[in-house]
Amino acid sequence: QREEEHFERYQPALMTDGHRIEVVANIGKASEAAAAVEAGAEGIGLLRTEFLFLERDTPPTEDKQFEAYCEMTRALNGLPLIIRTLDIGGDKVVPYLPQPHEDNPFLGVRGIRLCLRKPELFRPQLRAIYRASVTGPVKIMFPMIATLEDLRAAKEIAEQVRTELGVPPVEIGIMVEVPSAAAMAAEFARECDFFSIGTNDLTQYVLAMDRMHAALAKQVDGLHPAVLRMIDQTVRGAQSAGKWVGVCGGIAGEPRGAVILAGLGVTELSMSIPSVAAVKAYLRGISHTQAQTFAKRALACQGADAVRELPLP
Ligand code: PEP
Ligand code: MG
């Protein structure tokens, strides 16, 4: 146990010039929190709470959710836990929420849009999160935010729930995964505490390519300069209001993506558990200045292939 603490994966991702990137994990189950810490993650940057709601006949109760979140704060032992509120709709459906047919479910009532229409679903989840927040550093994150009205409406419900419970405020952030949120980043940044860029969805919406479409799979690349420019714009917007930006989409877990993101000014990278140690190790081997130079080159490329061919620092 003692010796384990010296393993490289438990050391922070300090770049050679001292710039630090927080490396955290994406999880979708309570039991994965301990595995994430074990793998070297410095917390959880994205908890996909859908796992509590899928493959069931009824929604989980507030208490059941509270227990799951507490199991995670216990395993994390003081490390941060970003809980994303329910993100269903789109391709994810549950039997107890019969959705009217949608011709374009990815452009329909998904994520926060569904929760704002179903307070009987949204409020118990927020209650469970706020109750768990007194057991560790919990943050709340809303998915699929497209407009300032969505954010304001979600925050208003969260604040009602919080005052009902009489617990202290927690940081509230949004997923930036819809191009409108990236375009309006400066405005959003004034009304929330942090951003986490969901490059999986952002890529599908920027390129207008279904992220699940087999025939398009090779082209739906989060390293496309069009996506990187949206990320750049998002970081600048956040910085104008002094807020921090993370990325929890797939490119955060690739060394190439991680270098570009660090160079663009992203300070937290959230990825699947198996990527944590390798990304930390890669970042430790280069300087932030090198990452910035590389990111500039990537932004200037004409397509994703060109970004993938750039020699890594
Ligand atoms: C994303 O869209 O990039 C993301 C991290 O969320 P999900 O993959 O759960 O949609
Ligand atoms: Mg998403």
Description:
By secondary structure, this protein is of the alpha/beta class. It is 42% helix and 13% strand. It contains 13 helices and nine strands. Strands 2-3-4-5-6-7-8-9 form an eight-stranded parallel beta barrel, surrounded by seven helices. Helix 1 links the parallel strand 2 and strand 3. The radius of gyration is 19 Å and the shape is globular. The two termini are 35 Å apart. The mean pLDDT is 96. It is found in: Cytoplasm. It comes from Chthoniobacter flavus Ellin428. Belongs to the PEP-utilizing enzyme family.
List the helices and strands and how they pair.
Blueprint: E1 13-14, E2 20-27, H1 32-38, E3 44-48, H2 62-76, E4 81-84, H3 112-117, H4 119-132, E5 138-142, H5 148-165, E6 172-176, H6 179-183, H7 185-189, E7 194-197, H8 199-207, H9 225-240, E8 244-247, H10 255-264, E9 268-271, H11 276-284, H12 288-299, H13 304-309
Parallel strand pairs: 2-3, 2-9, 3-4, 4-5, 5-6, 6-7, 7-8, 8-9
Antiparallel strand pairs: 1-2
Helix pairs in contact: 1-2, 2-4, 4-5, 10-12
The structure holds phosphoenolpyruvate and magnesium ion.
